[in-house]
From TrEMBL:
It comes from the Eukaryota. Residues 50-119 form the Histone-binding protein RBBP4-like N-terminal domain. Belongs to the WD repeat RBAP46/RBAP48/MSI1 family. It comes from Actinidia rufa. GO terms for cellular component: endosome membrane; Golgi membrane. Residues 1-46 are annotated as: Disordered. Residues 8-17 have a biased composition (Basic residues). GO terms for biological process: chromatin organization. It is found in: Endosome membrane; Golgi apparatus membrane. This is Transducin family protein. Residues 18-39 have a biased composition (Basic and acidic residues). SUPFAM superfamilies: WD40 repeat-like (SSF50978). Keywords: Chromatin regulator, Endosome, Golgi apparatus, Membrane, Repeat, Signal, Transmembrane, Transmembrane helix, WD repeat. It is a multi-pass membrane protein.
Amino acid sequence: MEEASPTPRKRGRPRKDKPKEEREREEPAAAEKVRERADKKSHHSSAVDEKYVQWKSLVPVLYDWLANHNLLWPSLSCRWGPQLEQGKFKNRQPLYALLAVVTDGSVPNTLVIANCEVVKSRVAAADHVSEFNEEACSPFVKKYKTIIHPGEVNRIRELPQNNSIIATHTDCPEVLTGHQENAEFALAMCPAEPFVLSGGRDKSVVLWSIQDHVSTLTTDAATKYPRSSGSIIKAADNSSVGPRGIFLGHEDTVEDVQFCPSSAQEFCSVGDDSCLILWDARVGSSPVVKVGKKKEHATRTPNSPPGLFFQHAGHRDKVVDFHWNAADPWTIVSVSDDCETSGGGGTLQQTKDPNTAFRVELVDALTLQRSLQIWRMSDLIYRPEEEFKMREDEFCKVACRVTLDAASAKNFKEKIDDYYRVNMILDNLPVAILWERGQRKVFYERGFRVGFKGKSAGSNNERDFIHNHPNFKVMYHKDPETNFARVVGFEVTANRFCSVLYYSTHFS
């Protein structure tokens, strides 16, 4: 008779039960810690809610147009398509979004193509912009087509040469093979030729050609179904295409890839190894240029990045993707993810940089909100470069022309009676009026009044006047070595003369 095998020992250190008296002493302290954590979380959530309410109250001032489209399931990617139609007040163009990318299995993963009506600049009324519903679908986003997608999808990219072809990253068996491990986020399409670029956890960058995929489908269809003209779809189910090149040089996961706009053979990639690599497929699979991160001592990062001039805080969940609208400048679509497990949230911050970069700052989320938002900041915040030029004097510059009706005139009269002031900012410096009293007694008053009460020449009746011809003086400091200049002063004189003068100030 065989001896029974002993019960396998559990791995790890054996657990020692504490005495009953010791457990009773520790229970009140543990309960107090739980209450403290709950109070701290509740206080922080109320602070997040207060910030969101404050942002929502400023929507009519900050935005020219805003549309919120609530999603039933979280999405990880969003992309604009080409413009289809131009109207008098709205343009129509497709919008790609991934829905149900994280589900319980009861709902399949789908790629949704929607037709979006993009309202033109200075068309939407301020009260209409502010009245958006966070829990409803936007009337500007209308579903056009739904495609059942095999597996989860993290990124969408459209082929510039053919708007009907879209590439996605998926965890299912790939049509374009070449990666040894998962490739989740790094994906790009070439604007010059029909090439696809991808990066993944295997530390590699893989290049494919769409033409190779089309050739493979045609060959497989002719071999398997020589007499059937409708068999290409069936043959596509199991067709796979090998890469044109696999490029190795990263030491960690490749997080993003991008083609050169003018060349299909030149591209770059960035990874978790803090390296940016430039590649040229014509010279081989080795890096042409590799830029690593400079080792520096840890420093405290500021709350706001340098050059920040706009922050979109409409998402209370983590921002996972956004895309500029190439057909409509300053119009952006962004999407937030489900934060049930992380409890995070996010805002989009736009920096004043030649490349107009974006950063995402995570904050705690108050509620589960999976939203796709389309927004365009007010053009009163920015101005085109040709409208105001640095270090060039301008006189009688017409900023806008407005005809006041009776209601608007009455509104201005009430603002003048209540001593309302106009506040402006230039490079984070507020505009101010310079006052001089006596010798060497100078002080500044922020902003200038909307208007004043006075009498016209030859009349004894008091009337209301609007300061519609301000005189601005911008002071700057010029760097003698780089020829760059930075604004150091912003003054205004509310009078009947319109001019913009720049004065150079030098410091010892």
